[in-house]
Amino acid sequence: MIQTTTEYYRVVLQRIQSLDGLAPLLLRLYLAPVMMQAGWTKFQSFDSTVAWFGNSEWGLGLPFPEVMVVLAAGTELVGGALLIPGIAVRLVSIPLMATMIVAAVTVHLENGWLAIADSSSWLANERVMESAERLERARDILRENGNYSWLTGRGSVVILNNGIEFAATYFVMLLTLLFTGGGRYTSVDYFVAKRIGRSTH
């Protein structure tokens, strides 16, 4: 029984091996619009982003904020675009991971893990627990002074906690692409490597 199961498992793995480029493809197509939107938003609000990057009182207090914004936005916009066809995926993943680390450390880390404040989560910190009272008060105000069913017709009212959850998730996805590459049959990188391999033999 065990031998039969093992053999069946091996056969299934062999058959799906030709589809192993699907997972990197899906990671790339998920990450690309996220990265491109982040970069585009920085360019669209360039002056305010520069002010936020450079101000040490209410912003990030980073040196050379104009340069930092151009580097961050350019990395996200160009890097995200290259992920779509799968060009230089391993190389592009490195600066994109760097932007996720910088974002996690400078913007999100002090807020804990959760992106959305959820006081019922075992990952909730004091900040999240304290937000529960604020959220309930906001809901009371909306119930008293607005059409609550209409306001919540597309989703619940929540408090953005802005923790490292998303930045960490994107980092892990990019790290995976660093190791897997763009994917067999699904990326330009694969066909370029195949062509180069043929020309060197």
Automatic annotation (TrEMBL):
Presence of the UniProt keyword S-adenosyl-L-methionine in the record: no
Localisation per UniProt entry: Cell membrane
Presence of keyword Transmembrane: yes
Keywords tagged on the record: Cell membrane, Membrane, Transmembrane, Transmembrane helix
Major localization class: membrane
Membrane topology designation: Multi-pass membrane protein
Transmembrane feature ranges: 21-40, 60-84, 91-109, 158-179
PANTHER family documented for this protein: DOXX FAMILY PROTEIN, OXIDOREDUCTASE CATD-RELATED
UniProt family annotation: Belongs to the DoxX family.
Stated name of the protein: DoxX family protein
Organism this protein belongs to: Thalassolituus maritimus
